[in-house]
Design the sequence.
């Protein structure tokens, strides 16, 4: 079964920002969808079986799973923070909805009217964003270059919380999306360990200070400590997973989070992140996944295709110049047919040999997974799905140096694995059929031209 013969694989989408807060064209913050005109994924050459929601919900098979999507964003797109934040937000909404009604009332909803009013205020009187980071400020402390005393009171620092444990603070058995290796909780599970808490609170306070936002010294709102960690990880300047936000978006988000921890405080930022994931990262991921071979293999396949075409031309020329009858010139169709089909498929990132077995090459980070220590591989896989963690840098991972030392021949004939996702196999079948049909048409034209030429009779 194949898709329409008019099928076209998703085009590559260049990185661009569609910000709701920066005045550029984008989805309304009150809309329920990002862009109804672009909601149908088949418009991008993506079938419903490989839609963004299907991948995120775990309804796909390798190599189109959420794990594969994350790996692509880390190693290829270098923008995994958007998906990490999106997954955290989904889990955060779920956990917030599980709170009792009394606890939810402590964090009032950030309404559209408040968001619009805040955006208008920032437009008329933009907040003075300080370029000096918290670390730099500590270095300049006590010198003539020191910044004025901050008006922000760091959350929970310098005084105890008189209300004790905030509502619904995670327990040792329920840490949400925080990985065990990153748990900064005390043994009782009631509060953050002082070192981790102070670090996150300091970075969060620095972000509020840079946006000229005054924060209460303490609060009993649910998940306030977690919000501080999210700010220090995704929002603050120089954060390890800093989101690509405009200054207005960042200031608007911090103003909202200073008032409430309700999920609606992230409304504007979520629209920007989700638009980027749905209409840029997802398209590029499917386009990249369609390629069943690595770059050396695809270049090798293109070379074979060109060689086949040149072979067909050479055979046709030699027969035309000889005393052989016109019928013998049809033999050149073998070279033309194989060469053109191989070249067309390779131009779309596919190797016809691998496709014949519905195989694909293992990715560089998958090749050495079995050779590396099992615990270190597990830790690498887990870190990318940690909502609160370090940066997404991978240059120091063991496979990088190993793959660079791999010779070109081994890269061309790397290990293969069967493609499990049926929808992806159908896309590849469609592209292969298009290549074959295109080859038949072009081969008929080329052979027809050579058959029409007069006999050379040179030998």
Sequence:
């Amino acid at each position: 079964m194949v898709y329409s013969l008019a099928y076209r694989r998703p085009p590559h989408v260049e990185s661009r920002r569609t910000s709701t807060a920066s005045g550029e064209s984008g989805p309304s913050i009150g809309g329920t969808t990002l862009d109804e005109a672009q909601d149908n994924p088949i418009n991008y050459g993506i079938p419903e079986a490989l839609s963004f929601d299907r991948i995120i919900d775990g309804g796909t098979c390798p190599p189109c799973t959420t794990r594969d999507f994350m790996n692509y964003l880390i190693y290829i797109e270098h923008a995994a923070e958007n998906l990490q934040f999106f997954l955290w937000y989904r889990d955060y909404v779920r956990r917030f909805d599980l709170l009792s009604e009394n606890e939810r009332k402590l964090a009032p909803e950030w309404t559209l009217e408040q968001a619009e009013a805040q955006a208008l205020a920032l437009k008329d009187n933009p907040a003075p964003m300080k370029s000096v980071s918290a670390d730099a400020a500590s270095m300049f402390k006590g010198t003539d270059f020191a910044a004025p005393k901050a008006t922000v009171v760091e959350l929970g620092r310098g005084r105890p919380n008189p209300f004790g444990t905030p509502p619904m603070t995670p327990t040792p058995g329920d840490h949400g999306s925080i990985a065990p290796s990153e748990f900064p909780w005390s043994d009782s599970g009631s509060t953050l360990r002082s070192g981790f808490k102070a670090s996150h609170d300091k970075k969060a306070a620095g972000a509020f200070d840079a946006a000229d936002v005054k924060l209460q010294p303490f609060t009993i709102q649910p998940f306030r400590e977690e919000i501080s960690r999210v700010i220090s990880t995704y929002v603050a300047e120089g954060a390890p997973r800093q989101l690509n936000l405009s200054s207005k978006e960042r200031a608007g988000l911090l103003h909202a989070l200073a008032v409430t921890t309700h999920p609606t405080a992230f409304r504007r930022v979520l629209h920007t992140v989700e638009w980027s994931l749905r209409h840029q990262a997802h398209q590029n991921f499917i386009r990249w996944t369609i390629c069943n071979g690595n770059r050396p293999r695809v270049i090798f396949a293109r070379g074979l295709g060109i060689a086949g075409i040149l072979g067909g031309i050479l055979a046709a020329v030699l027969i035309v110049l000889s005393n052989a009858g016109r019928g013998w010139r049809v033999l050149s169709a073998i070279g033309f047919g194989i060469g053109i089909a191989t070249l067309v498929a390779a131009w779309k990132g596919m190797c016809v040999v691998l496709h014949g077995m519905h195989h694909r090459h293992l990715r560089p980070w998958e090749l050495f997974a079995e050779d590396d220590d099992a615990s270190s591989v597990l830790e690498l896989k887990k870190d990318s799905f940690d909502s609160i963690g370090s940066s997404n840098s991978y240059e120091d991972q063991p496979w990088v140096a190993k793959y660079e030392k791999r010779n070109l021949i081994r890269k061309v004939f790397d290990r293969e694995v069967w493609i499990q996702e049926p929808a992806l196999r159908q896309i590849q079948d469609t592209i292969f059929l298009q290549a074959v049909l295109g080859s038949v048409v072009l081969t008929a034209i080329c052979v027809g031209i050579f058959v029409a030429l007069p006999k050379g009779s040179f030998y």
Summary: Residues 422-452 form the longest helix (31 residues). Strands lie at 359-361, 416-418. The two ends are 50 Å apart (CA to CA). The longest strand covers residues 359-361.
